[in-house]
């Protein structure tokens, strides 16, 4: 296969392909010389880089281009077709008539209209509409040469205006708005004749840069009057050649330009077959305008550049012939290129190291397109994982053996690794190693180093090998037995020991046939005696080491639990006792970590356990049943970011218990090994974490890896990538099908749904949990790792399919995917069809009975009786009676006898005689319809029959007068059939009750109420009387519901309903509209006095205390009353007017009820109009700030300002007294106040820059105070403007303090502790309870304007004000007088000792820009005026 890199790539017919092949061979030699003269070995040599190739179903292994769309689908253009990867499945795009099958796809581009542009070799350019999945031919232009071929697109670019430019081999075309093509540039004929082609384009603001195989050209897009091309083969007037080489000698390779892009710093990057160049794009265009040549900088003069992908402002990834390179700008200003990796498939080295294309997903993971190697998936984070292992053929292996059982680090960055054959000393600074104690392979088992522990001597280590503990001398590399005094101690140490740990004094703890401790200072072995009898050596597993958080107690793991042992007193405490299943397994905890007062335990069979140290209570338990993928947990370690690390037989995991996030490091993606060993885990001095495995050592750098921050994690919706049916092909969009709906056919079957989290690697077996609901009920639920769910046969219904990953990830957050679809009923099996079948069946049965009756008329009466009654007559459940033409009973069936308690052995005459004697009235009921029947006549009636079982049965009586066949004018006999429809009637009654009655109280609902009220109005019209409608609303019911629960609230409503029903007469109608609203309709009301008495009695009845569930509840009600025809003439209007009157009654604290008046309706309309105007003002942001100064009359300066909210409406102005209550009612007050505070702080910051040192005082509503007043948010807003807490004060009212005094007290204290001050506004107008001043920690008392108005003329008002001022002083509170409008008032207040004044005397409320002039103003001394 000929690469277009090193030859002119115009190879579209056999003749020119032959010519190109010769040129290619020659230039290939040149390209090899200049491709990598100083090529270095790649940094990444891992064989664990996953790849997507023909092994997984890729069309072909040579990748020309990779594109990742907005959904996350990966589109791969190969030399054998186009594929889409969804994280689990590959989908091949065939195109119309399979034109894209086994076609070389050269380039991909996704435009803003969700169209995927597909450039194919020799077939033209196609578009794939991702919404409709339709593939259509978009560009089919022949090459401008003597031979015929179809141009392919080599590049696509959109400019800032959304215009799409497409570069073909010989032309650049622009796609017009109507889908047409406009040629904007044509390659000159001289270049075409030399087999040169266009390779890349870049549309800048004024120039179109065209990279060709013979240089770069700039086309002036703003120039008018020039032709697009030149027949003479020269450049037209609009085109200039760009000299990017400067002083670099030109050759066929560095003139072969093939990549153009601009970065975030407006630099134009140019990649060639031999070199990479850059220039400032703005300067370049300016110089082209002036005819001056811009100097390009040569970043690299040797590399063959295929693509550049930004990785930051001064960081890039380069796709080159040698592989992947990183390009970074150094602090010195120079650019440094690092060879990262070569193209490979696992351990297989490809024939070509070329990386052809790069695509980066949301996780910054790189998709790398190779030649003959498919697509590689490489995560840059993998650079932060170091693998130390022995490789096949490695002349200097770093370890004595790949099986690593233990790890220990010296203080001088020396890592000691105990392996399956000896001990390795590894220098972490240069990874050079020294090996000790290594044995021949046949004796390797005896050289296993199972544990390494420090000693008090920095030159020695404790090592446990083959069940024995020895001292290892770091200097000599030799081992020796532990020096011990006494024969018994020596024998113990010479035996089998295990479970070693060292305490803070350097003493060695271990187990043999009992608990022991070796003291190196005294060289003695001490048997440990524990007072707790549960500590038996036979049950013990390991000494785990000392825990600083537990006062350096030694942790001991036994078969029963985890113990903390005091190393001084040997007293023990059971921290956690295993569950029975954990005890039975014999697998005790082998690793631990303490983090935030939680002891984490790792079990080799039961996962991860978190125990609160103080209480000993298990607070967290993680295993494969919830978040973890494994129950095997080894080597728990905590990093500085708050995450837990552990290893297992499936890799290494990073886990955040706080955020419940997990990150897997698995074989084939980040790791070269899967199984890790228990006991081989270590936090290095630099914060990295090392784990030993069956294949070497893996070292992780947590600080360089994602920390699971929810803000930084990209969010990816779960993708439903496809749906297939076994019954037919289903045309679907090539986009994420989540949140979409499908209407399937009734005969569709074999539904398979494909899904993926997209961002996961294709080697990661992510688990997904999915559920399928049918008509709101769970039909199926399962967990899968295959990325698909199949359902063979589904019945008719509305379905919802929902899927999500089972665990959250460190790297990204995946939201669930939801798909809905409907399967209709088959036409002949729908409920309607079954209803038709039933009707036809009933008709057929009736016809059969009719035919049967006509047949038996030919027989004698006796024969006829026997045949009519027959078996069917005997067994039928209907009650059947047959009378002759004289209406004498001929026969009754057993069902009739059983139902009415008659003897089945009696004749029909005897049976009916017995019935008549028992129930005489039934005789007339049965014979009366017979008398009215003519021959052939039929009557159907419904009635109720009291049966022998004591129940009343609803029956339908079908009575037929059968005519004589021979004499049609005569009746032959009568047939009377009783059909029991009790169940049907009961169902109808239930439906009627459900539709007409309240399910909780049994009262009428709104529908039946309107009907009853209509009848009442009709009766009133006939009787010329009135109808009264009482609308009743329970007061404080919501508080009972919220505090005691809905159960108590429902019981309360039932009791109230019963009381209303018992109080009302049988002519009254009692209904419940919903919630706590009831309506009573009283008819024939003659005067209001009678009704008032009833209402007073009703209020008294409702307010009678009620005992429910041990609680005594007292509730009141408000009643609004309207009359027909005085207030309204329709039911709906009557209820509406009563509702309006009820809201007025709520304000009447004396009577509790109010009659409707026209004035109320006007007020309601006015209130609605006001609400609409306030809503409009809120939506159009018509509220603005004004400020009124608070003047210190003593110091003659402005102490602060009060924020006053105003509304600017163009039609009719609204006062704060009008719109503020409505804002509070609509809950808009929170947002409006928040925005007003932001404006006020901005104004205050501006004033302080001008020398103002005062504060702004803000009125806070109850809603803002309870829910939206966040201390941290306010502080942040203040600090951002360089303001302090003293810059803002809050004004609250007495009503706010009354609602929840304890909450208010705590809330005020919280803000005061932070430095804020609180004012009690409008003091004196409410309850003015002195207890508030004592109970609540208030700072300022504001005297209401109503007291200031007459302070200088009314002695009583003056006394009240003076007392209030003295009261404020007593409580060490500031005092501010509001509404000061005259000099006399100001003087009086100053005389009383109140110097902080606010009012029109000083200034009206002003906009912020006018406050500036007042800040510098010195106010006159009132006392001197």
TrEMBL record:
NCBIfam families: GGDEF, sensory_box. This is EAL domain-containing protein. Residues 1167-1419 form the EAL domain. Signal peptide: none annotated. The lineage of its organism: Bacteria, Pseudomonadati, Pseudomonadota, Gammaproteobacteria, Alteromonadales. InterPro entries: Biofilm_reg_signaling, EAL_dom, EAL_sf, GGDEF_dom, Ig-like_fold, Nucleotide_cyclase, PAS, PAS-assoc_C. Gene3D superfamilies: 3.30.70.270, EAL domain, Immunoglobulins, PAS domain, YVTN repeat-like/Quinoprotein amine dehydrogenase. SUPFAM superfamilies: Calcium-dependent phosphotriesterase (SSF63829), EAL domain-like (SSF141868), NHL repeat (SSF101898), Nucleotide cyclase (SSF55073), PYP-like sensor domain (PAS domain) (SSF55785). It comes from Salinimonas iocasae. Residues 939-993 form the PAC domain. Residues 1025-1158 form the GGDEF domain. CDD domains: EAL, GGDEF, PAS. Pfam families: EAL, GGDEF, Reg_prop. PANTHER family: BIOFILM ARCHITECTURE MAINTENANCE PROTEIN MBAA (PTHR44757:SF2), DIGUANYLATE CYCLASE DGCP (PTHR44757).
């Amino acid at each position: 296969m000929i690469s277009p890199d090193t030859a002119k790539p115009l190879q579209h017919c056999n003749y020119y392909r032959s010519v190109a092949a010769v040129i290619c061979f020659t230039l290939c030699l040149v390209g090899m010389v200049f491709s990598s003269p100083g090529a270095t070995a790649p940094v990444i040599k891992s064989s664990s880089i996953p790849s997507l190739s023909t092994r997984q179903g890729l069309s072909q292994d040579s990748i020309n281009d990779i594109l990742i769309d907005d959904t996350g689908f990966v589109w791969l253009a190969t030399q054998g077709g186009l594929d889409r990867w969804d994280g689990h499945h590959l989908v091949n795009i065939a195109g119309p008539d399979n034109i894209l099958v086994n076609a070389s796809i050269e380039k991909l581009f996704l435009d803003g209209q969700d169209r995927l542009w597909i450039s194919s070799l020799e077939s033209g350019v196609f578009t794939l509409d991702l919404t409709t999945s339709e593939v259509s031919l978009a560009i089919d232009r022949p090459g401008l040469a003597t031979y015929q071929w179809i141009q392919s697109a080599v590049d696509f670019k959109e400019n800032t205006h959304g215009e799409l430019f497409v570069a073909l081999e010989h032309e650049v075309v622009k796609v017009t708005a109507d889908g047409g093509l406009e040629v904007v540039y044509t390659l000159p004929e001289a270049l075409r004749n030399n087999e040169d082609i266009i390779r890349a384009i870049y549309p800048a603001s004024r120039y179109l840069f065209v990279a060709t195989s013979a240089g770069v050209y700039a086309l002036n897009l703003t120039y008018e009057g020039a032709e697009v091309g030149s027949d003479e083969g020269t450049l037209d007037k609009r085109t200039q050649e760009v000299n990017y080489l400067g002083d670099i000698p030109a050759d066929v390779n560095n003139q072969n330009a093939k990549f153009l892009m601009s970065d975030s710093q407006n630099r134009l990057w140019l990649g060639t077959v031999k070199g990479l160049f850059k220039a400032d794009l703005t300067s370049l265009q300016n110089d082209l305008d002036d005819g001056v040549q811009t100097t390009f900088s040569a970043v690299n003069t040797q590399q063959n550049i295929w693509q550049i992908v930004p990785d930051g402002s001064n960081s890039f990834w380069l796709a080159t012939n040698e592989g992947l390179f990183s390009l970074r700008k150094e602090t010195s200003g120079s650019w440094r290129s690092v060879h990262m990796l070569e193209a490979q498939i696992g351990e297989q080295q490809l024939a070509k190291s070329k990386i052809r294309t790069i695509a980066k997903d949301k996780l910054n993971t790189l998709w790398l397109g190779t030649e003959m190697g498919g697509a590689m998936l490489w995560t840059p984070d993998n650079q932060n994982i170091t693998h130390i292992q022995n490789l096949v053929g490695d002349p200097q292996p770093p370890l004595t053996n790949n099986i690593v059982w233990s790890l220990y680090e010296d203080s001088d960055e020396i890592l000691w690794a105990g392996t399956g054959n000896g001990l390795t000393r590894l220098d972490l600074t240069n990874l050079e190693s020294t090996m000790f104690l290594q044995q021949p392979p046949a004796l390797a088992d005896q050289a296993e180093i199972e544990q390494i522990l420090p000693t008090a001597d920095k030159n020695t280590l404790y090592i446990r090998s083959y069940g024995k503990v020895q001292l290892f001398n770091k200097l000599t590399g030799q081992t020796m037995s532990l020096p011990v005094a006494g024969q018994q101690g020596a024998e113990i140490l010479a035996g089998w020991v295990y479970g070693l740990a060292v305490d803070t004094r350097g003493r060695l703890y271990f187990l043999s046939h009992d608990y022991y401790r070796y003291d190196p200072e005294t060289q003695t072995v001490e048997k440990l005696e524990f007072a707790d009898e549960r500590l038996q050596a036979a049950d013990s597993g390991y000494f785990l080491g000392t825990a600083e958080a537990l006062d350096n107690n030694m942790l001991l793991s036994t078969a029963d639990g985890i113990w903390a042992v005091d190393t001084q007193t040997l007293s023990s405490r059971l921290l956690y006792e295993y569950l029975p299943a954990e005890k039975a397994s014999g697998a005790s905890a082998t690793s631990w970590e303490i983090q935030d007062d939680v002891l984490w335990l790792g079990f080799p069979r039961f996962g991860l356990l978190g125990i609160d140290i103080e209480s000993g209570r298990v607070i967290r338990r993680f295993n494969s049943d919830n978040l973890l993928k494994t129950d095997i947990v080894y080597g728990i370690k905590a990093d500085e970011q708050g995450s837990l690390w552990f290893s297992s037989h499936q890799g290494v995991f990073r886990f955040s218990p706080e955020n419940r996030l997990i990150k897997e490091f698995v074989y084939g993606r980040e790791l070269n090994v899967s199984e890790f060993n228990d006991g081989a885990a270590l936090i290095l001095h630099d914060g990295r974490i090392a784990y030993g495995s069956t294949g070497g050592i893996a070292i992780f750098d947590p600080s360089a890896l994602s920390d699971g921050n929810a803000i930084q994690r990209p969010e990816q919706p779960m993708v439903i990538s496809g749906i297939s049916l076994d019954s037919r092909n289903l045309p679907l969009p090539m986009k994420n099908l989540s949140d979409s709906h499908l209407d399937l056919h009734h005969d569709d079957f074999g539904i398979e749904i494909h899904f993926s989290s997209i961002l996961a690697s294709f080697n990661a077996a992510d688990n997904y949990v999915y559920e399928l609901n049918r008509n709101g009920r769970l039909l199926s639920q399962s967990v899968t790792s295959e990325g698909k769910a199949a359902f063979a046969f589904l019945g008719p219904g509305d379905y919802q399919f929902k899927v999500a990953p089972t665990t959250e990830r460190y790297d990204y957050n995946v939201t669930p995917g939801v798909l809905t679809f409907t399967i209709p009923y088959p036409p002949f099996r729908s409920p309607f069809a079954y209803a038709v079948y039933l009707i036809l069946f009933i008709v057929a049965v009736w016809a059969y009975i009719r035919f049967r009756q006509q047949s038996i008329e030919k027989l004698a009466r006796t024969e006829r009786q026997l045949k009519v009654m027959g078996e069917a007559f005997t067994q039928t459940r209907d009650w059947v009676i047959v009378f002759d033409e004289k209406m004498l009973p001929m026969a009754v069936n057993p069902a009739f006898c059983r139902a009415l308690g008659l003897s089945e052995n009696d004749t029909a005459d005897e049976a009916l005689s017995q019935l008549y004697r028992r129930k005489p009235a039934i005789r007339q009921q049965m014979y009366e319809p017979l008398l009215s029947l003519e021959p052939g006549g039929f009557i159907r009636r419904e009635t109720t029959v009291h049966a022998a079982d004591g129940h009343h049965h609803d029956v339908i009586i079908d009575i037929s007068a059968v005519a004589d066949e021979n004499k049609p004018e005569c009746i032959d006999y009568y047939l009377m059939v009783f059909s029991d429809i009790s169940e049907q009637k009961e169902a109808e009654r239930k439906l009627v009750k459900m539709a007409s009655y309240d399910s909780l109280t049994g009262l009428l609902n709104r529908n039946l109420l309107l009907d009853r009220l209509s009848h009442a109005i009709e009766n009133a019209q006939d009787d010329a009387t009135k109808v009264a409608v009482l609308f009743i609303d329970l007061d404080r019911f919501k508080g009972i519901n919220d505090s005691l629960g809905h159960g108590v609230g429902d019981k309360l409503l039932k009791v109230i309903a019963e009381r209303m029903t018992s109080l009302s007469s049988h002519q009254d109608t009692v209904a419940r509209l919903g919630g706590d609203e009831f309506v009573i309709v009283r008819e024939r009301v003659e005067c209001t006095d009678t009704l008032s008495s009833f209402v007073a009695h009703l209020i008294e009845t409702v307010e009678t205390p009620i005992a429910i569930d041990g609680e005594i509840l007292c509730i009141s009600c408000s009643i609004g009353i309207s009359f027909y025809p005085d207030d309204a003439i329709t039911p709906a209007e009557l209820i509406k007017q009563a509702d309006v009157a009820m809201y007025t009654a709520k304000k009447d604290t004396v009577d509790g009820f109010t009659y409707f008046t026209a004035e109320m309706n006007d007020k309601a309309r006015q209130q609605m109009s006001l609400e609409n105007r306030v809503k409009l003002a809120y939506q159009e942001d018509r509220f603005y700030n004004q400020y009124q100064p608070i003047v210190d009359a003593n110091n003659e300066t402005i102490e602060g300002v009060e924020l006053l909210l105003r509304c600017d409406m163009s039609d009719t102005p609204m006062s704060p007294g009008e719109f503020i209550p409505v804002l509070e009612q609509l809950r808009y007050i929170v947002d409006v106040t928040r925005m007003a505070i932001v404006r006020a702080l901005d104004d205050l910051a501006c004033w302080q820059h001008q020398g103002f040192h005062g504060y702004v005082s803000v009125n806070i509503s109850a809603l803002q105070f309870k829910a939206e007043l966040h201390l941290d948010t306010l502080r942040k807003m203040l600090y951002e403007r360089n303001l302090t807490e003293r810059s803002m004060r809050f004004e609250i009212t007495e009503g706010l303090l009354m609602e929840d005094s304890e909450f208010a007290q705590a809330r005020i204290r919280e803000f005061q502790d932070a430095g804020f001050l609180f004012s009690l506004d409008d003091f004196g107008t409410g309850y003015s309870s002195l207890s508030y001043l004592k109970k609540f920690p208030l700072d300022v008392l504001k005297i209401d304007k109503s007291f200031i108005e007459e302070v200088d003329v009314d002695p009583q008002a003056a006394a009240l004000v003076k007392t209030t001022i003295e009261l404020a002083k007593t409580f060490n509170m500031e005092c501010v007088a509001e509404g000061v409008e005259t000099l006399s008032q100001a003087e009086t207040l100053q005389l009383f000792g109140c110097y902080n004044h606010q009012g029109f005397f000083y200034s009206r409320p002003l906009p912020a820009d006018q406050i500036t002039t007042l800040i510098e103003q010195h106010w006159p001394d009132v006392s001197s005026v």
